[in-house]
Amino acid sequence: MEPASQPASEGPIQLAPRTPDEPTITLPQPPGWGFMPGKDETSIRGILFNQELRRHGFTPNAVVTCEELTGQVGLPSQALAKERAAVIDLVGDLDTDTAGTVSGFPSRTITYNLQGRPATGLLIAVQNAKDRIWAITVTVQTTDADNPHYIDATRQLLDSLEVRLPTP
User: Fold this and answer.
1) Which residues pair with residue 95 across a beta bridge?
2) How far apart are CA 33 and CA 109, in angstroms?
3) Which of 27, 97, 127, 155 is deepest in the core (most CB within 10 A)?
4) In 45-119, which ranges are continuous DSSP H helix?
5) How far apart are alpha carbons 148 and 99 in whole angstroms?
6) Can you tell me whether residue 24 is helix, strand or coil?
7) Element (H, E) at 46
8) Which residues, 6 or more positions from 121, have their beta carbon under 8 angstroms from its beta carbon?
């Protein structure tokens, strides 16, 4: 990974919407984790990473995406199913799959093996009053899943993430 565009800090990161109706994503920046914003032409909104936790040639990271699915799905449950199916197509079986909510929006937390590394994915489906639907994902991975600093950072990222739609 390249050096962070933003130095490691402990304040929240707000990922601004790219279109007027799109949700705003706010996530914590755990101590020691750097942040690189995503490029405008991709669904990747940002990558958090921690060089100090690098093990076995791999830097632990959390990739945040936001993709509009309007026209591809009609319901938030279909958005979650679409994202879940894409992960299964890539990695095969999931280890765990748990339903939940994030900021009042339906979500699923999944765990799986990604190229020999344990990964956790948080999938969130967001629908606004105009029936536009987005899928937000946060994928966290490492080669050292038992590291207490990684465990704490992952818990903080997944438990403190917030999603808000613009007020009409």
Assistant:
1) none
2) 22
3) 27
4) 76-91
5) 25
6) strand
7) strand 44-49
8) 87, 109, 110, 111, 112, 137, 138, 139, 140
Torsion of CA 40, 42, 47, 51, to 10 degrees: -100
Q: One-letter amino acid identity for 130?
A: K
Burial 80-90 (b: 16+ CB within 10 A, else e): bebbbeebeee
How large is the greatest C-alpha to C-alpha distance in the chain, in angstroms?
48
State both tokens at 24.
Answer: 């705003």
CB 165 within 8 A of CB 30: no
Per-residue pLDDT band for 168 (boundaries 50, 70, 90) equals confident
Between residues 16 and 2, the one the model is more confident about: 16
- pLDDT of 39: 87
**Domains detected in the chain:** 13-164 (3.40.1000.10)
Q: Label the pairing between strands 133-141 and 162-164.
A: unpaired
DSSP string, 104-149: TEEEEEEEEEETTEEEEEEEEEEE-TT--EEEEEEEEE-S-TT-HH
